[in-house]
Write a structure and sequence with these properties.
Elements (H helix, E strand, L loop, with lengths): L23 H13 L3 E5 L4 E4 L7 E3 L6 H7 E9 L2 E9 L2 H4 L3 H44 L3 H15 L4 E7 L15 E7 L3 H5 L9 H7 L3 E4 L11 H7 L3 E9 L2 E10 L7 H47 L10 E8 L7 E7 L12 E8 L3 H19 L5 H15 L6 E9 L4 E7 L5 E3 L19 E3 L17 E5 L5 E5 L1 H4 L10 H15 L5 H16 L8 E8 L2
Antiparallel strand pairs: 1-2, 1-5, 2-3, 4-5, 6-7, 6-10, 8-9, 9-10, 11-20, 12-13, 13-14, 14-15, 15-18, 16-17, 16-19, 19-20
Length: 577
């Protein structure tokens, strides 16, 4: 026995000639003929006689002409069919003789049947080996081709062509589903599939909205993991397009689902031009191809998603860089005001922002000008919050340039926001103006956390650990005003106070106080106030940048390596002597 190349066309069955190599079985039949003194003919699947030869290069040949049916019937004592994969692949025809018609005729027939049975087993093993080799070859070839494929369509074409060629079929298509979960609810019509590649199928067949099977049963079974084999499309009761299949010249079908990481990708649909029973080996080959194609398609999509993700990350990084450039690089120079800030987004883009706005640029010399201080927090995080932050900042700068009071600025920004934003987009804002000449602070708030004012504490008694600091040496600068962007026409209460030498003003967003440790304990306002208080008490002459650094470091020590739950921004003002 030997392995022949796979058939390259859609044809039914095998023949004993597919398994003959050295002519040993043909010579065995000739030897039996001599022993029984009776014709013992080996016939192929089409009834042609196979003869032995003395030529070492051609060990057997087909008789030309061979015996006809009448001659075979006249001489026949008995015939034993040869089978492989439940198909008749030939016959051993034994003619009449004294031995085959004598008292040992039954034993002779039984012995030849046993010999044929052994030959059948050899052929069966040969078919199994052949199938395994074809499967291995298909796997290796398909893996190499898929690895070299440059696009998803190329992957699909390779998979479909490999399946048609290896299974000896004539036509097929490969359909893909959309991003939805196709396995849980296939549409009654084929509106959820895309014929990405097809071979030898008409446009009319591909464009038909009706599926081949009633209720899309074939697709459902394939996506559930079955290899769906339809030997005869005209006789299978599940087929609803019998006339259409006949007109297309399709007689049999074989379907396999493609699933990657539990998600249905599509179905490989193959068609034969003749009625055909598909073997388990052939089904296994298609399953292998479908699995490899699924992995290749899934990986191609993952790689495409990764490329998109990398591109998005680069775009976000660029956007984050632009956003950082919108923040002040340094504080305005002032003779009596020491200003500093820290801004750290939790994602690539932030909804927090702050700004230092130098006023009176035409009327006062540098160092003596009033300074506007703004800090804000857009509700939410990420891209949407960053875009809204840019809008709020632009609106605020436009209205500040008009020289109006903090309360009027916030009212104008609120009206702009109500007009241009969605109903669920809000901002908290605190805006104050400090005059270094008389140390007057005028401020207004739109729902922002009250800043901390720490009066000069040099010479005062320290506040013990665990005691409340606010109300003693520190107080919150509270001001009336709801969030900006809720309702148009809102007014925001304005407050005034005079700062003293050595005073500290700390403004921050809720990301500072909402930081949590690994035990999910919140940092809170009390800890932040204590951090500012302890730092100033330990060093009365501490600069604003150093104070910012120590307060931020205190939050970091508390939260450890935990991911920032929100953007964190703090602005500090210290009054110099």
């Amino acid at each position: 026995m030997t392995t022949r190349p796979a058939r390259a066309k859609d044809e039914p069955g095998q023949s004993i000639t597919d398994f003959l190599s050295d002519g040993g079985f043909v010579h065995l039949c000739a030897t039996l003929a001599d022993l029984l003194d009776a014709p013992v003919r080996l016939l192929d699947a089409q009834g042609r006689e196979i003869l032995a030869t003395d030529d070492p290069t051609v060990t057997w040949r087909l008789a030309d002409p061979g015996p006809n049916a009448a001659e075979l019937a006249a001489e026949r004592a008995f015939t034993v069919p040869m089978r492989a994969a439940d198909r008749v692949i030939g016959w051993v025809h034994v003619g009449k003789s004294p031995a085959t018609e004598g008292p040992l005729a039954g034993e002779i027939e039984q012995a030849i049947a046993l010999i044929v049975d052994v030959a059948d087993q050899v052929c069966e093993r040969e078919l199994e080996l052949r199938a395994r080799l074809r499967e291995l070859s298909a796997t290796q070839r398909l893996s190499a081709l898929l690895a070299a494929a440059q696009s998803e369509d190329e992957v699909l074409g390779i998979a479909l062509d490999s399946a048609i060629e290896l299974l000896g079929l004539r036509a097929g298509s490969l359909v893909l589903f959309g991003d939805g979960d196709a396995g849980s609810g296939l549409a009654a019509q084929e509106r959820d599939v895309e014929h990405r590649v097809s071979r030898n199928l008409s446009d009319e067949w591909l464009a038909n909205p009706l599926p081949l099977s009633s209720g899309r049963e074939f697709d459902k079974l394939a996506l559930a993991g079955d290899i769906v084999a339809i030997a005869d499309l005209q006789r299978d009761p599940r087929v609803q397009l019998k006339d259409r299949a006949k007109a297309e010249g399709l007689a049999s079908a074989l379907n396999a689902g493609m699933v990657f990481n539990g998600k249905p990708l599509g179905v490989i649909r193959l068609y034969g031009r003749q009625v055909r029973e598909f073997t388990s080996a052939e089904r296994r080959v298609l399953r292998t191809i479908a699995q490899h194609a699924s992995v290749a398609i899934g990986q191609a999509r993952l790689l495409r998603m990764q490329r998109r993700e990398r591109l998005l990350q680069r775009q976000l990084a660029l956007a984050g860089d632009v956003q950082r450039r919108m923040l002040p690089k340094s504080a305005p120079k002032s003779e009596r005001l020491d200003l500093s800030a820290s801004w750290e987004p939790s994602l690539e883009l932030a909804g927090d922002f702050f700004d230092f706005i130098e006023l009176d640029q035409t009327s006062r010399p540098e160092g003596q000008r009033r300074v506007g201080i703004v800090i804000g927090d857009v509700v939410g995080k990420g891209v949407a919050a960053a875009l809204l932050m840019s809008h709020v900042r632009a609106s605020l700068l436009a209205h500040v340039s008009r020289g109006v009071s903090p309360s009027d600025v916030l009212s104008a920004v609120n009206d702009d926001l109500c007009r241009d934003s969605m109903p669920n987009e809000f901002v908290t804002l605190w805006y104050g103006v400090v005059d270094p000449q008389n140390l007057e602070l005028v401020y207004a708030s739109a729902g922002h956390d009250p800043p901390l004012l720490l009066r000069q504490i040099e010479g005062s008694e320290p506040v013990p650990e665990g005691s409340e600091i606010e109300g003693a040496d520190a107080r919150a600068l509270r001001s009336d005003g709801m969030l900006a962007g809720v309702l148009p026409g809102q007014s925001f209460g304005e407050q005034k106070l005079t700062l003293n030498v050595g005073d500290t003003l700390a403004m921050f967003t809720d990301g500072m106080t909402d930081a949590r440790d690994f035990g999910d304990q919140r940092y809170g306002r009390a800890r932040l106030v204590r951090s500012v208080y302890d730092s100033v008490r330990a060093n009365a002459g501490i600069s604003a940048p150093q104070l910012v650094k120590e307060v931020v470091w205190g939050v970091r020590r508390f939260a450890g390596l935990a991911k920032l739950p929100d953007d964190q921004t703090i602005v500090v003002l210290r009054v110099r002597p």
